[in-house]
C-alpha cells in the first residue's frame, strides 16, 4: 500500500454549501443531467468587487473587462454586465453574445488575432480594437468608416526586459513606431492606448512591461496622438488550494516515487521536471494579491499606482480566470469501479477534455457528494469515456473522503476557468455537458439553465 497523498481543493463557501446540500445536487442532476457544469454568478460578482476594491484603494482610474473566453457561460457574461464590467471578446460569436448580454459597444474590447469579417464588425460598431499585428491595423484602417474614430489599443510584445515572458501575440516593440504611424495616418482610427498580456504572477515582469509600454505612450504623444489607457491584460492567478504545503510535498515525492505509484504509468504531470502544471494547482494566493503587489511595486521609487495617476493614465485589466475563480464546479456520476493494470479505477460519466484544458494535467481531489464512512486507505485513478489510453480524467491518484460506488456523484471544484470549455469537444458522440447557473437564494439554491441568461 502506498502513502496517502490527498490534495484537497480550496472551496468557496457557496460551492462548499452546494456540495454539502446533497438534495440540491441531486435536483440539479435530475433536472439537467450528468455530467453537469454548474456556475455561480454570485461568486463572480464577489471576485469582481474584490478586484475593483484593490484598484479603488490605490486611487487608480480603471476599467475591468471580463475575458469571456474563459467560460462560454451566458450566466457569467450576464453577471459581468450586471457588475458593470466591460467585455473582452475574442471572436464574432463572443461579440454577439456580449451584445445580447447587454454590453454597449463602447463597453466591449476585441482582443486576440482577428479574421477580416470580425475586424469589419469591430470597425462598424466602433468597438475598441486591441490590435495583435500591423496587418490587423492596416485592415482596420482600410475599413474604419470615414469620419469615425474607431478606438485602437496596440498590444505590445517583444519587451527587452529578461523577466518578461516571451509572447507570440502582439506587435513587436521594434514595430511600435510603424504601428503608431498607421494609426496617426488613418482618418477613421483613434489611439486609445497600449496593451500587453502576461501569463505570470510576477510583479517585476508586469512592472517592466509597463515601463516599456509607457515609453510607447510617450512616443505616441510626440506624434500628436493622445492615448489615455494602459491595458495590462489578465493573467491574475486562481487560488486552487488553501495552503501550498501538500502540493509541494506531493511534487517532491513524485520525483522519487516508483513510476505508476502516484501517477498513472508513463505520466509525471510535468512535475517531475518542474513542469508548468505545478505553479497553477499549487497556488494559494488570490488574484487580488497579484494586482496589489503590481500596484504597490515601484518604478524609480514611486509606486506604480502613483505613476499611473500622475501620467493621467487609466488602467485596464482583462481578467478571465480571476473573475471566475471558484465560480463553477463540475458534477459527474460514478458509473462503476474496476481493477485494471493492477490499479483501482473509478469510471466516470465524463470525458477528460470536458473538464481539463490541454495544458493542465493535475486535478486536485474531487469531493464525493453525500459521502459516508472513513476515508479509504488507498487512492484511485479516475477514468472517463474517451478512447486513448492516456485519456484518464485524473492521471494522478486521487484520494476521496469515502468509498465511491455506482450512482454516487463526484464534484470537481473550481472548474469555471477554461476547464469547462477550452478543450471540450463532442468526441465519441458525447456532447459537452450542459451548464446551469446556481443561485443561492436565502437557504436554497435555485437553478437556471444557462442559455436562459443573456437572451
Ligand atoms: C489578451 C488577453 N486578455 C486576457 C486574457 C485572460 O487571461 P486570464 O484568464 O489569465 O486572466 C487572455 C487569455 O488568454 C488574453 O489573451
Task: List the topology elements.
Blueprint lengths: L12 H8 L1 H11 L3 E4 L1 H17 L4 E6 L6 H9 L3 E4 L2 H9 L7 E3 L5 H10 L2 E4 L2 H10 L6 E8 L13 E2 L3 H10 L3 E7 L7 H20 L6 E3 L13 H12 L20 H5 L5 H10 L1 E2 L2 E2 H7 L3 E4 L3 H4 L3 E13 L2 E6 L18 E2 L11 E4 L8 E7 L10 E5 L21 E7 L2 E6 L6
Parallel strand pairs: 1-19, 2-3, 2-12, 3-4, 4-5, 5-6, 6-7, 6-8, 8-9, 9-12, 14-16
Antiparallel strand pairs: 1-13, 10-11, 13-14, 13-18, 15-18, 16-17, 19-20
The protein binds pyridoxal-5'-phosphate (PLP).
> Compounds present?
pyridoxal-5'-phosphate
* Helical stretch tally: 14
The tally of beta strands, per DSSP, is 20
What is the typical, i.e. mean, pLDDT?
93
**How much beta, percentage-wise?**
15-25%
Architecture per CATH nomenclature, i.e. the level-2 architecture of the largest domain: Alpha-Beta Barrel
Rg (CA only) = 23 Å
Structural commentary:
It is a single chain. The protein is of the alpha/beta class. The protein folds into two domains: about 15-40 and about 325-450, Lyase, Ornithine Decarboxylase, Chain A, domain 1 (Beta Barrel), CATH 2.40.37; about 40-240 and about 285-325, TIM Barrel, CATH 3.20.20. Helix content is about 30%, strand content about 20%. It has helices at about 15-20, 20-30, 40-55, 75-80, 90-100, 115-125, 135-145, 175-185, 205-220, 245-255, 275-280, 285-295, 305-310, 320-325; strands spanning about 35-40, 60-65, 85-90, 110, 130, 150-155, 170, 190-195, 230, 300, 300-305, 315, 330-340, 345-350, 365-370, 380-385, 390-400, 410-415, 435-440, 445-450. Strands 1, 13, 14, 15, 16, 17, 18, 19 and 20 form a nine-stranded mixed sheet that branches. Strands 2-3-4-5-6-8-9-12 form an eight-stranded parallel beta barrel, surrounded by seven helices. Strands 10-11 form a two-stranded antiparallel sheet. Helix 7 (about 135-145) links the parallel strand 5 and strand 6. It starts with 12 loop residues before the first helix and ends in a 6-residue tail after the last strand. The mean pLDDT is about 95. Bound molecules: pyridoxal-5'-phosphate. The site of pyridoxal-5'-phosphate (PLP) has 16 residues, from helix 14.
Amino acid at each position: 500500500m502506498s502513502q496517502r497523498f490527498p490534495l484537497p481543493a480550496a472551496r468557496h463557501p457557496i460551492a462548499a454549501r452546494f456540495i454539502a446540500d446533497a438534495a440540491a445536487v441531486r435536483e440539479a442532476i435530475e433536472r439537467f443531467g450528468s455530467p453537469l457544469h454548474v456556475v455561480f454568478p454570485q461568486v463572480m460578482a464577489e471576485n469582481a468587487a474584490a478586484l475593483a476594491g484593490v484598484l479603488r484603494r490605490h486611487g487608480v482610474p480603471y476599467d475591468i473587462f471580463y475575458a469571456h473566453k474563459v467560460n462560454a457561460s451566458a450566466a457569467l457574461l450576464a453577471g459581468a454586465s450586471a457588475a458593470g464590467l466591460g467585455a473582452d471578446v475574442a471572436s464574432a460569436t463572443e461579440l454577439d453574445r456580449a451584445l445580447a448580454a447587454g454590453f454597449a459597444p463602447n463597453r466591449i474590447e476585441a482582443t486576440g488575432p482577428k479574421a477580416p469579417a470580425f475586424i469589419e464588425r469591430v470597425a462598424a460598431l466602433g468597438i475598441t480594437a486591441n490590435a495583435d499585428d500591423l496587418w490587423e491595423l492596416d485592415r482596420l484602417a482600410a475599413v474604419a468608416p470615414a469620419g469615425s474614430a474607431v478606438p485602437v489599443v496596440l498590444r505590445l510584445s517583444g519587451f527587452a526586459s529578461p523577466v518578461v515572458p516571451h509572447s507570440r501575440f502582439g506587435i513587436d516593440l521594434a514595430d511600435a513606431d510603424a504601428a503608431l504611424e498607421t494609426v496617426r495616418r488613418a482618418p477613421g482610427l483613434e489611439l486609445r492606448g497600449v496593451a500587453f498580456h502576461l501569463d505570470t504572477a510576477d510583479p517585476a515582469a508586469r512592472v517592466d512591461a509597463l515601463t516599456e509600454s509607457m515609453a510607447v505612450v510617450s512616443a505616441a504623444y510626440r506624434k500628436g496622438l493622445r492615448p489615455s489607457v494602459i491595458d495590462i491584460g489578465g493573467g491574475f492567478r486562481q487560488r486552487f488550494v488553501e495552503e501550498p504545503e501538500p502540493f509541494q510535498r506531493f511534487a517532491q515525492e513524485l520525483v522519487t516515487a516508483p513510476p505508476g505509484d502516484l501517477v498513472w504509468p508513463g505520466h509525471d504531470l510535468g512535475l517531475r521536471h518542474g513542469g508548468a502544471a505545478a505553479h497553477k494547482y499549487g497556488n494559494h494566493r488570490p488574484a487580488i494579491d497579484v494586482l496589489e503587489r503590481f500596484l504597490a511595486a515601484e518604478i524609480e521609487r514611486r509606486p506604480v499606482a502613483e505613476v499611473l495617476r500622475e501620467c493621467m493614465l487609466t488602467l485596464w485589466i482583462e481578467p478571465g480566470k480571476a473573475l471566475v475563480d471558484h465560480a463553477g464546479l463540475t458534477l459527474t456520476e460514478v458509473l462503476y469501479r474496476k481493477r485494471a493494470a493492477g490499479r483501482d479505477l473509478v469510471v466516470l460519466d465524463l470525458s477528460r477534455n470536458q473538464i481539463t484544458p490541454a495544458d493542465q494535467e493535475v486535478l486536485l481531489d474531487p469531493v464525493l457528494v453525500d459521502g459516508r464512512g472513513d476515508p479509504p486507505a488507498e487512492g484511485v485513478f479516475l477514468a472517463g469515456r474517451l478512447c486513448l489510453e492516456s485519456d484518464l480524467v485524473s492521471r494522478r491518484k486521487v484520494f476521496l473522503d469515502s468509498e465511491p460506488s455506482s450512482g454516487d456523484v463526484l464534484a470537481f471544484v473550481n472548474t469555471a476557468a477554461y476547464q469547462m470549455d477550452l478543450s471540450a469537444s463532442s468526441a465519441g458522440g458525447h456532447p459537452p455537458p450542459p451548464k446551469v447557473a446556481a443561485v443561492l437564494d436565502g437557504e436554497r439554491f435555485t437553478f437556471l439553465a444557462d442559455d436562459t441568461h443573456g437572451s
